[in-house]
Amino acid sequence: MLKKLFLTFLFFLTSLFAQSKSEFFPDGLTIQPFAANSLEPKLGFIFKINKNELRLYISNSIDVYRNQFEENQTISFGADLFTFTLLRGEQNFHFPVDAVDYLFGINFGYKKEINNSEYGLRTRLSHISAHFVDGHFDGTTQQWKDNVYPRVYSREFIELMPYYKIGNLRIYSGFTYLFHVDPSTIKKDNYQFGFDYYFHLKLMNEFTPYFGYDIKLIHLANYTANNSLIAGIKFGEVFGRGLSIYYNYYSGKSIHGEYFDKNRTYSAIGINLDL
Fold it and tell me: What is the pLDDT of residue 140?
């Protein structure tokens, strides 16, 4: 019986891949980044308004393998490597680094296109660690700034992000399970919901306004909501290479691990390169 099941499964896979188009290291991403989600690949800056802080993103996601089958279905396997860094501005173009977070992991994608709609799922298996840097230390007083001392922060998690897209509107939800986390007092379940909308206007060489909203319920001692609102303009391909200039409003707990239990509210102007 097991032999028959194995042969049937093997026959199914052989038939599937015989009718499919496979690529290693293809262009673009199967699942495009969710515009307002704070944990997406970016290459650029955000400058906080009325605050002496900016954030530097040097991060990327790639599809390592992609398989398209039955003409309208695609699966993919990829990798993520992110850094996002908190800096302050000082005189003479000095930008001391206060804190830095690292993420690395793998991702899986599936999508199916039907006429003017699409649905799919992105899954991530990732690790994040966070660290204070020398810009958080006051060399004059030999003390950590604001009396906030370094602490161990890391998490390993699996994230499930299903979505549905109709026309220019994409709606998504998310569930994140932290199967290991330090400090251990952090709870292990997070929930998420959001949407983004791209206007797809063809003006001034692929000029595309867009906006999005994301709310994430994170579980510390209690549940708390992180809200992120984004509105911007994309120059270049809508879901490809280009330059984005955007406004971002954020309210909730800090996205930086060393400040994970600190409240942050700010408006910011961002610049991002989509490679």
Answer: 77
Give the Cα separation of 234 and 45 in Å (integer).
15
Q: What distance in Å separates the CA atoms of residue 70 and residue 2, rounded to the nearest whole number?
A: 28
* Token pair recorded at residue 272: 């991002």
Token readout for 178 is 């932290």
> What is the DSSP pairing of strand 21-24 with strand 54-69?
antiparallel
Please tell me the CATH superfamily of domain 21-274, with its number. Answer: Phospholipase A1 (2.40.230.10)
DSSP string, 79-127: EEEEEEEEE--BGGGB--EEEEEEEEEEEEEEEEEETTEEEEEEEEEEE
- Closest to 238 (Cα-Cα) out of 192, 274, 195, 271: 274
Nearest to 39 by CA among 121, 159, 202: 159
What is the per-residue burial (b if ≥16 Cβ within 10 Å, else e) of 230-268?
bbbbbebebeeebebebbbbbebbbbbbbbbeeebeeeb
What residues in the chain have per-residue pLDDT under 70? Answer: 1-19, 92, 201-205
Residue with tokens 């810009």: 135
d(CA 170, CA 208): 16
Domain ranges of the chain: 21-274
Query: Beta strand pairing status for 242-253 and 223-236?
Result: antiparallel
Nearest to 105 by CA among 44, 39, 151: 39
Residue 204: what pLDDT?
Answer: 54
Q: How far apart are the first and last CA of the chain?
A: 50
